[in-house]
Amino acid sequence: MFELMKLPFKENALVPVISENTVQFHYGKHHQAYVDKVNELIAGTEFQDMALEEIIERTFDKPEYQVLYNNAGQVFNHNVYWNSIGIGDRLDSSVKDKIAEVFETRDALREKLVDEAVKFFGSGWIWLVEGSGGKLSVLATRNGDTPLVLGYKPIFNMDVWEHAYYLDYQNRKKDYAEAFVRQLLKI
Ligand code: MN
Questions:
Q1: Ligand 1: distance of its center to the CA of 163 in Å?
Q2: Which pLDDT band holds residue 83 (cuts at 50, 70, 90)?
Q3: In angstroms, what is the span from residue 165 Cα to ligand 1's centroid?
Q4: Rounded to the nearest whole angstrom, what is the distance from the C-alpha of residue 87 to the centroid of ligand 1?
Q5: 86 Cα to the center of ligand 1, angstroms
Q6: Which among 8, 20, 110, 186 is least buried, having the fewest CB atoms inside 10 angstroms?
Q7: Closest by alpha carbon to 75, among 136, 32, 16, 119?
Q8: Ligand 1 center to residue 15 CA distance, Å?
């Protein structure tokens, strides 16, 4: 059984970029609901003692497990999301070097993240990931998909489901993306 992760900051810590109200709904209701649904679906099954990542790998692309896959993916993705806050201040030097190699400047990386968020149609996630050869790239995934099943290691992400920003930004997704990248990811 899984528990909702502890938030690594106070619910009002993301103000003014993200309101306390949004965090309360996003973490306390949406993220909690994904955890609850996974627990409900794995109880008494072969999945009940597995790590979250293993559940995701084993249910990927299997229509009979699609609901479990989607919800487990969303638990994982939100765990990464809350842990992405402030990550720009914590990147180790090898990741910084790889960012410079691929994107040249932090401005260019920021621009790419915002651009991908704005043009993404529907519900999903924008990620900075590391490929098997160590190369970094910006990746978009749909719904509850995670980069894990595509062979990438996540470094950080940005939630572009409407529930992540709609209470604060309504249709101004670009404003959310710009503020999130610069002030919360601190990229
Ligand atoms: Mn979300």
A1: 6
A2: very high
A3: 9
A4: 18
A5: 18
A6: 8
A7: 32
A8: 17
Q: How many residues does the chain have?
A: 187
pLDDT band, very low/low/confident/very high, at 93 (cuts 50, 70, 90): very high
| Residues 130 and 80 occupy one common structural domain | no
CB atoms within 10 A of CB 97: 12
Q: Are residues 126 and 59 in the same domain?
A: no
Q: How far is the CA of 91 from the centre of ligand 1 (A)?
A: 23
Domain-located, residue 12: no
**Which structural domain, as residue segments, surrounds residue 48?**
20-84
Q: How far is the CA of 146 from the centre of ligand 1 (A)?
A: 13
| Same-domain pairing of 150 and 178 | yes
pTM higher than 0.70, yes or no? yes
Q: What average pLDDT does the segment 144-167 reach?
A: 97
The CA-atom distances, in angstroms, between 10 and each of 6, 17, 108, 127, 129 are 10, 14, 31, 24, 27
CA distances from 109 to 41, 96, 161 (A): 38, 11, 21
Please give the distance, rounded to the nearest whole angstrom, from the Cα atom of residue 180 to the centre of ligand 1: 14
Residue-wise pLDDT tens digits, 36-82: 999 999 999 999 999 999 999 999 999 999 999 999 999 999 999 99
